[in-house]
Amino acid sequence: MELLEQITAYQPWNEQEAQDRQELLRRLQSGEELYSRDNCAAHLTASAWVVSPDRRQVLMAYHNLYDSWAWLGGHADGDRDLLAVALREVREESGLTKVQAVSPDIYSLEILTVDGHEKRGKYVSSHLHLNVTFLLEADPAEPLRCKPDENSRVGWFTPEGAVEASSEPWFRQRIYRKLNEKLTAY
Asked: What pLDDT score was predicted for residue 116?
């Protein structure tokens, strides 16, 4: 199923998702190139809320750019299969090899602001990440490793501990708490 169809069929969890879904649909229907970072104003990303099979743990990485514990994920960079992007990014950022989708369906939608910053010696202007989140599952006993150019630590937290570990108030209040609330359905 194409992303436009997936987002059209997606049932928003709250007002934030309803508003962001509407804007995502508008942008996807506009014909604007969103799958590449060549669009400096807004582009598609995929994130993962990685949980243990018993749902008692959530995987987080200490993201160097944001100086905070955060979920895992990354840019589509031309890939139109955002679930594949989420899976790839989790493997790259955590070292996990056995990670799988709990469901192929979208778990959450967000439009995220990214402040201007330096990356690999070049300035990147402030922009939007048009983000699609998937619920993934992995075994906490599997070895972890960080990806030094992106994160300095990777670790498992209780769901509540994952929220508290983040130093980004908006993510704690609007994103991570929501992702945990939605876990009750899985």
From this structure: 80
Q: pTM of the prediction?
A: 0.94
Average pLDDT, the chain: 94
CB 2 within 8 A of CB 10: no
- Summarised one tens digit per residue, pLDDT across range 134-186 is 999 999 999 999 999 899 999 999 999 999 999 999 999 999 999 999 998 88
Structure tokens at 51: 């949980």
CB neighbours of 76 closer than 8 A, spacing ≥ 6? 34, 35, 36, 43, 44, 45, 46, 82, 85
Tell me the CATH number at 133: 3.90.79.10
Which is it for strands 122-124 and 151-157: parallel, antiparallel or unpaired? unpaired
Q: How far apart are CA 105 and CA 102, in angstroms?
A: 9
Tally of domains within the chain: 1
* Interstrand relation of 58-63 and 151-157 (parallel, antiparallel or unpaired): antiparallel
Reading the block at residue 166, the tokens are: 């983040």
Give exposure, 119-142, as e/b (b: 16+ Cβ within 10 Å). Answer: eeeeeeeebbbbbbbbbbbbebee
Question: Residue 86: which domain range?
Answer: 3-185
Characterise 163 by phi-psi region: left (phi > 0), alpha (psi -120 to 50), beta (else). alpha
